[in-house]
Amino acid sequence: KAGVTQTPRYLIKTRGQQVTLSCSPISGHRSVSWYQQTPGQGLQFLFEYFSETQRNKGNFPGRFSGRQFSNSRSEMNVSTLELGDSALYLCASSLGTGGWDEQFFGPGTRLTVL
Amino acid sequence: AQSVTQPDIHITVSEGASLELRCNYSYGATPYLFWYVQSPGQGLQLLLKYFSGDTLVQGIKGFEAEFKRSQSSFNLRKPSVHWSDAAEYFCAVATVGYYGGATNKLIFGTGTLLAVQP
Asked: For B9-43, what is each residue's pLDDT tens digit?
């Protein structure tokens, strides 16, 4: 069974630009969560999507948004990039049975903002 | 608010030695606790979890953790460390949903970087 796939793996953008990251979950998984990992703030939850609906949300500004498609693939978008958005963005998928399910993490997308 | 503290930023142990990584949580009720490992260039992998029941939890790769409510701790242990265990380890707690169950929204500690000496 293929694992969680994230594309692209590396990305370089400049301040003020916007970026879209993609996550393909494990086949059969319906929940996708996103996390931001930085040296200063550590791992922080961004949001979770289940059945194309946002189910949980972290404490990030509105510049961070996401969506999920009918095939459970998810994208997250960051608009008006700031230097502090440089991070490893991790996606995790799970079955989505209603509460907690074991989450399987992808390798991440490394975003560098110049 | 729930929080997780990992007091040790970096730990070095010799191969074959025992290991204990510390984790303290802040939550009034019984927490839903996890340990994850992250190897360089890879995502996180779940080692073990504690929801209820036996306070000594067995996980993958020979790891175990003990939940101690009186100390608000959930320390990770391994009796004999292998060079391949070198990685970063994260303790996490799941937020609680409307009906009291765990959600997929995890709060992570800052991590402990484990180095293994030959």
From this structure: 999 999 999 999 999 999 767 789 999 999 988 88
Is A58's Cβ below 8 Å from some Cβ in B?
yes
Instruction: Name the B residues in 3-62 with CB < 8 Å from any A CB.
Output: 32, 41-46
Cis ω for the linkage preceding A39 (within 30 of 0): no
How many alpha carbons fall within 13 Å on the CB side of residue B115? 6
Pick from A20, A16, A11: which is nearest to A66 by CA?
A20
Shortest Cα–Cα distance, B40 to chain A (Å): 10
Q: Are strands A5-7 and B56-58 parallel, antiparallel or unpaired?
A: unpaired
Partner residues linked to B94 by β-bridges: B32, B106
Token readout for B51 is: 């929801």
